[in-house]
Fold this protein.
Amino acid sequence: MRNGNLVHMILASASMKGVIMKKFLIIGIDPEAVDYSDPNVPVGMTAEKLFADLADTQKQFADQGDHVDICAIQLDGSAEATVTAQLARSTYDCILIGGGIRKRDENLEMFERIINSIRRHAPSTPIGFVNGPQDSPKAAARILSHDYGQTRP
């Protein structure tokens, strides 16, 4: 069984039990678009490891009864449109942005466009920052522990 199917089964089970789930969005560079020779990328990191980290992160959220969507960004100028399209599909309790987007100088304009897209299309949704997928559950808990006056439609 593929990980996605397992997550959908867990979510369906939680929904049937009346569990109120939180929805999270993680925005990061597509693992296949990452330059693994970059000195800022952890030594030994590969697309396969990053995909595995993302799957593990989705499982961690599902295990606590929550749902996470992954918005994988390409480095071809389409980031803003990709984020906007994702935000049009769903609403979120928290949006997390990965370190690959915000830490590299050459990604500054893309980072600004992503932030401004979030401000336009999800203005009341709190935003958090992570270094990698493994940080996401802790960051989500940290962000949601603050009162940002969030209201979900």
